[in-house]
Amino acid sequence: MGMKGRHDIIKVGDHVLLYLDHRRTFLVKAEPGRVLHTHKGVVDVGGLVGRRFGEAVESSLGVRFYALKPLMRDYVMKMRRRTQIIYPKDVGLIAVLTGVGPGWRVVEAGTGSGALTAFLAYLVRPDGRVYSYEVREDLLEVAERNLEMAGVLDYVELKLGDVTEGIDEKDVDAVILDMATPWLVVEHAYESLRDSGSFLSFSPTIDQVKKTVKALRRTGFTDIQTYECLLRRIIVEEGRTRPETLMIGHTGYITSARKAVHAGG
Amino acid sequence: MGMKGRHDIIKVGDHVLLYLDHRRTFLVKAEPGRVLHTHKGVVDVGGLVGRRFGEAVESSLGVRFYALKPLMRDYVMKMRRRTQIIYPKDVGLIAVLTGVGPGWRVVEAGTGSGALTAFLAYLVRPDGRVYSYEVREDLLEVAERNLEMAGVLDYVELKLGDVTEGIDEKDVDAVILDMATPWLVVEHAYESLRDSGSFLSFSPTIDQVKKTVKALRRTGFTDIQTYECLLRRIIVEEGRTRPETLMIGHTGYITSARKAVHAGG
Amino acid sequence: MGMKGRHDIIKVGDHVLLYLDHRRTFLVKAEPGRVLHTHKGVVDVGGLVGRRFGEAVESSLGVRFYALKPLMRDYVMKMRRRTQIIYPKDVGLIAVLTGVGPGWRVVEAGTGSGALTAFLAYLVRPDGRVYSYEVREDLLEVAERNLEMAGVLDYVELKLGDVTEGIDEKDVDAVILDMATPWLVVEHAYESLRDSGSFLSFSPTIDQVKKTVKALRRTGFTDIQTYECLLRRIIVEEGRTRPETLMIGHTGYITSARKAVHAGG
Amino acid sequence: MGMKGRHDIIKVGDHVLLYLDHRRTFLVKAEPGRVLHTHKGVVDVGGLVGRRFGEAVESSLGVRFYALKPLMRDYVMKMRRRTQIIYPKDVGLIAVLTGVGPGWRVVEAGTGSGALTAFLAYLVRPDGRVYSYEVREDLLEVAERNLEMAGVLDYVELKLGDVTEGIDEKDVDAVILDMATPWLVVEHAYESLRDSGSFLSFSPTIDQVKKTVKALRRTGFTDIQTYECLLRRIIVEEGRTRPETLMIGHTGYITSARKAVHAGG
Fold it and tell me: Which chains touch D (3 or more CB pairs under 8 A)?
């Protein structure tokens, strides 16, 4: 009855997340002859080919690593980064607040290292598209490699350009900003969005939030909301269950809004 | 050049979210002759037909409502509910942690009022599928209506059944549980998941988390993590910017894990 | 050996906190003939005289109340209030940050209903003193009654006056502000404080904090820090241990500083 | 009119907190000839004698340090420590919940490095007393030096002993525990407390909390509450105001209770 056929077999060229513990993971490409050197010994990466995803492999020192199939969050955490990247907790909230999903056309700026871009592209597949703007050409190159690694480059249009000067696309479902001066983009976002479309901005400082909210009110957006999201990891072990001592206390504020329109407009 | 064509026009039968402020919104169906009675006057719902999404309409008392195109989060907040429903902040995190996205096959239990089901269905479109189990027939009926309203019923298979006794589907990408005794489902989830597939459980109490984590460790899952997510709304107004006084201090803990497999298994 | 002598006996005129559960407590004065009417029946308050603090008494409906000896936090929670009062969690932090303790001389403004005043007075006993300013005479009267009830009026000097126009006292150990425009008091606080003395301001909005911090920097304070403190109640019960669903998400920001001095000044 | 007389002059033997910024402070003793070597140059500590608290002094590299008069929180942060010490945020809450103040008699265990002991001693002065138990003699020695440095040793009775085996003192106002097995002390605490007296336990894990709450309920305590307190530092600077990125996400849970008594007992 062919149960073997059900297994997810690692093929040449597949990415594998070697998982030691939640702080130590390694993203590798399964190719003959390749090895990974770690503090816990050498792992035979080439030898992963033909094994199943999820299998444990032992390093030369006998330490066990799990060969997981990477999720988008794994790709993102392993991206080459030249900029502060967005945290998964914030991406989830961004998706739910804006409504980004399959088929959506989304404008994003700035691309940065492509972390948020990758998540958005993953969610709009297969028919949607992310138009991602970045003013720095070097970052676009980094992002391109990262998006290719993450397998979502086909769903992204990387654009060298400054959204404070304008947005080419019209009738997009959402405009999502992770940049220093979002308030300078609010009017362009309004022009670019479809009726009732979603605006979202991610900003580390409250000063940015205040300027952005002010611009949103002036421009004709409604349902303007600002949130912050705090994530705590809980250590769950018999007799010593407790939240982790150190946590990320702040990444950024998330401001969402929807485009109101004026009759005869 | 036909800019009119770009507008999102409200048609008969369309759902509209009438937005007064962030605490007062109304989900209505645009049908001739229908009106909405509110404390702020009567709104001519039938008259919305032919207007653009995002337009402001005035009630009989001259109060302005915005006619927004509902997002999935709007549908969910307006669902008929017989059970505590999941919060959007948790849904976002659940999606990112599990990797649920277009094309995924997901088992979910229990269906409850269908809130989490609706979000998951929205994300797996158009080729994925959510198999949602519920032991109470009356809830399945509520969920069915809710999912139909939210426009995602086609992507869901509602199943009357108890996942503590087994899961029919094999090779699913994720098993997501929002039920009282998730630890009783861990072995069935393992059997149901594809290699390296995602397990996730949402539980209000730490006692549930401890039992679930224990079962996950025993059953052969890896990358077992528990989180809680706190969302704070920030009031942004000149001279009185501050977090909101009352907040939801706790909804539930989120435990995620991935299926490890054993060679020769 | 007279163990009876050890007991804390309720005397005529003593305040008693009748404790039903953490949401339902009643502060009463033990006097002959007095009764308390509650939804859980009538409690014979007069009958408390001669009994021990900590004893359970039954209402006419057979419901048990504990006759606790009030702590300062109990008095504060039961104060007649005309203003938003400070939360215990914030008072604790204020005390630790400023160093307020026995013997300190503290300037406070505004008095409001006297909640913070009462805590400060409690801590500076027996030799310290709180100089509490308030511009509204009606509030001073409320505060006076509240402080008398809490048993700390002797340690407080209630002053009708506006600290934005000046502070009479010199060489005080701390200036503590809970008022709308703390930045207008920063220079007067500087003049009033002893060398290296403690400044503290409690403000609900970030806009107030920014103005206050700016004034502190300009005026010659050092070690300027701003904090917020979040308190969560945890429900601890077998099988359903979890943080409480609703929490106070924000009360105010706490800004502390210390007076730097300039040689020859 | 003798304003000079008002100044707080640094005398030989005084402790001084040299403040560079909120992460870099140095607790020194002003004695002739003493110097402090820092990465920002050498500070002439001996030269502080005769200057005013709060004055700025320059290091050999021209970097400015403020010579602050230490608060109890400064002493505590600079204590020699062999154990995890309690955070100021938690101390404030402990004081408010228990009611510890001038004149109180408090039993504390374990002493550890003496951080909590020092705060409690500071608050019960001049007539109260802290009875602090510790099973490790080496820690008692560390604590003794720390308490002497902090100037509160006279208000503390350090006791080599195990409170799980009993508490010598009777009729104390509060029993405060920061130790691994607080539940084993609950009955002894009950015996030691005066009627309606305050129990408090600080524990890092939820497992400890559950056992302690269970013991409290069994033993006859009432008003049993558990809290956690989260402190966030806010960076306040024009154009970049925001919470600090990293925060302490968890120190411990605080469980408070009050002694109920039974008539005829």
Answer: A, C
Question: For position A5, what pLDDT does the model report?
Answer: 44
- What SS3 state is found at A52? strand
Helix residue ranges, H only, B177-234: 186-192, 206-219
3-state DSSP assignment of residue C40:
coil
CA B196, CA A131: separation in Å to the nearest integer? 32
C130 forms bridges with which residues in the sheet?
C106, C156
Instruction: Give yes or no for C236 touching B (CB within 8 A).
Output: no
Cα dist from D127 to C125, D104, D106, whole Å: 11, 8, 12
Q: What is the pLDDT along chain C (265 residues), one digit of tens a residue?
A: 334 446 899 999 999 999 999 999 999 999 999 999 999 999 999 999 999 999 999 999 999 999 999 999 999 999 988 777 788 889 999 999 999 999 999 999 999 999 999 999 999 999 999 999 999 999 999 999 999 999 999 999 999 999 999 999 999 999 999 999 999 999 999 999 999 999 999 999 999 999 999 999 999 999 999 999 999 999 999 889 999 999 999 999 999 999 999 875 4
**CB-based contact A241 D206, cutoff 8 Å:** yes
Could you give all domains of chain A from N- to C-terminal order, each with its CATH number? 3-70 (3.10.330.20), 74-259 (3.40.50.150)
Alpha-carbon distance of A240 to A254, in angstroms, equals 34
- Quote the minimal CA–CA distance from D45 to chain A in Å: 35
Between the alpha carbon of residue D235 and those of residues A191, A252, B208, C159, D66, the distances in Å are: 35, 13, 38, 34, 20
List, edge to edge, every strand of the sheet that includes C56-58.
C24-29, C15-21, C64-68, C56-58
Amino acid letter at C50?
A: G
Q: Count CA atoms within 13 Å of residue A25 on its CB side.
A: 23
What's the whole-model pTM score?
A: 0.95
Amino acid in position A128: G
> Distance (Å, rounded) from C-alpha C103 to C-alpha C174?
12
Please tell me the distance in Å from B237's CA to the nearest CA on chain C: 10
For the segment D94-103, the average pLDDT, to the nearest whole number, is: 98
Asked if D187 and D175 touch (Cβ cutoff 8 Å), the reply is no
Cis, peptide link before residue B126, omega less than 30° from 0: yes
Q: Longest Cα pair distance anywhere in chain B, in angstroms? A: 72
Q: How open is the CA angle B49-B50-B54, to the nearest 5 degrees?
A: 85
Q: How far apart are CA C7 and CA C2, in angstroms?
A: 10
The reply to whether B195 touches chain A by the CB within 8 Å rule is: yes
Residue-wise pLDDT for D112-158, tens only, equals 999 999 999 999 999 999 999 999 999 999 999 999 999 999 999 99
CA separation for the pair C185, C212 (Å, rounded)? 9
Q: Which of B205, B233, B239 sits opposite C241 (nearest CB)?
A: B205
User: What is d(CA D201, CA D184) in angstroms, rounded to the nearest whole number?
Assistant: 12
